[in-house]
Design goal:
single chain; alpha/beta; two-stranded antiparallel sheet; about 15% strand; binds 2-acetamido-2-deoxy-beta-D-glucopyranose; lipid metabolism; hydrolase; lipid degradation
Length: about 400
Amino acid sequence: MKWLLVAVLTAFTISSAVTQSHILVGSPVNSLCADLIHPAGYSCTEHTIQTKDGYILALQRVASPAQNLTLQYGPPVLLQHGLFMAGDVWFLDSPKESLGFILADHGFDVWVGNVRGTRYSYGHVTFSETDKEFWDWSWQDLAMYDLAEMVQYMYSLANSKIFLVGHSQGTIMSFAALTQPRVAEMVEAAALLCPISYLDHVTAPLVERMVFMHLDQMVVALGLHQINFRSETLVKLVDSLCEGHMDCTDFLSSITGKNCCFNDSRIEYYLDYEPHPSSVKNLRHLFQMIRKGSFAQYDYGFLKNILTYGTSKPPEFKLSLIPASLPMWMGYGGSDLLADVKDVERTLAELPSRPELLYLENYGHIDFVLSTSAKEDVYKHMIQFFRARKKSSSW
Ligand SMILES: *[C@@H]1O[C@H](CO)[C@@H](O)[C@H](O)[C@H]1NC(C)=O
Ligand SMILES: *[C@@H]1O[C@H](CO)[C@@H](O)[C@H](O)[C@H]1NC(C)=O
C-alpha cells in the first residue's frame, strides 16, 4: 500500500514539474473530483494554479446536480481547510451534511482550496517532495502565496469579489492574508470556523505535551522536514509520547478537545483521507505561536531575523490592518481546545470590525467540519450571513 502511495506521489510530482503552464492538461493523479465529488453526483472540474514560489496547487470547482453549468454561476466561495487536512474534509459526510455540497445546493459557485504538501496539491516546478527545500514553508507562505493565488485566480475568473470560508489553520491563513490590502480588496466577506490568530491558551493535553517536549525540535533532530502521520517514524514518536505519559485512547480529543457531534463509526473512513502531510517548519511556527502568544512571521532567531526581516524580532501580523468594512462571521465552540475562547476574544478585541458570532458551547474543533448536525447548528447561519451580503442581486 505504501509503495503505491509513493509511486503515485512521485508520478504526480514529476508530471507537475515538467508542466510549467498555468493550467495543467489532464487531471492530477490524486483527484478530489474523482474521489468524492463525482461519486456523489455533483459536477466538478479540476483547476491547477502555480504559486509565485513555484508550488502547483489543485483547486476544484463544484456545482450541484440541480445546477445547469451553462447558466450563470452563483456567488463564488472558496473553502480553505485546516492543518493536516485538505479540501476533501468539506465533502466527507453525506451531501446533506457536508458544507461543500450544501453550499453548492444553495447555488454557490464552490471552489475548494488545497495547500502545498497535501496529497491533492503535490508538486513544485523544481523541487520534489524528497527535497528539503520542498518543505521549507510555514503558514505565512500558505497565506501569502497559496491563499493569495487562489483568491486571485477565482477573482479573475469570476470577475467579482469572492466569499472566503476558513477552518482552523485556514483562518490563520485568512487573517494573515486579509491584512494585505491586495487580497482584502478581492474578498466580499469571510466566514471563519474555529478562528485562530493567537494560540497561547491552547489546552489540548497532547498538544501541550508536544510543545513541552519540543517535539518540533525532535523531528528536526531526526532529519525530517515533512510531518506525515502515515510514516513509521511519526507513528512511533506519537506512540512513545502516549505510552505511560498520558491517556491517548481518545487520541483526537487529546488534540482537539471533545467533539460532541461527529459520527465515531465513520472514523475508519475519515482516516482514508485525513491526515494529510504538512511541513516541520509549519509545526515549529505554530509552536512558536503557542509559546510566545504572538501572531507574527516565522522566528528564525536573532541573526537570521535581521538578515530576513531587517529586525531582530519577526514582524507581527496586525489584525488592525484588516479593513473594518470587510464583513466577517465566526463560529467557535466551548469545547474547542485549539481555538480557545480566550484567544478568540483577543482576536475580536484587535479586529477593527465587529464580526457576527455564533458560539456553540458543546462544539469541539472537528465538529465545525464533521458534525452530523452542523448544517442546522452552523452552516445555516453562515449561509444567511452570505445571503445578507448579496441581497441586492437577483441570486
Ligand atoms: C442548460 O442550459 C442551456 C441553455 O439554456 C440548454 O441549452 C441546455 O440544454 C441545458 N442543459 C441541461 C442539462 O439542462
Ligand atoms: C453514522 O455513520 C454510519 C456509517 O456511515 C451510518 O450508518 C449511521 O447512520 C450514522 N449515524 C448517524 C447518527 O448519523
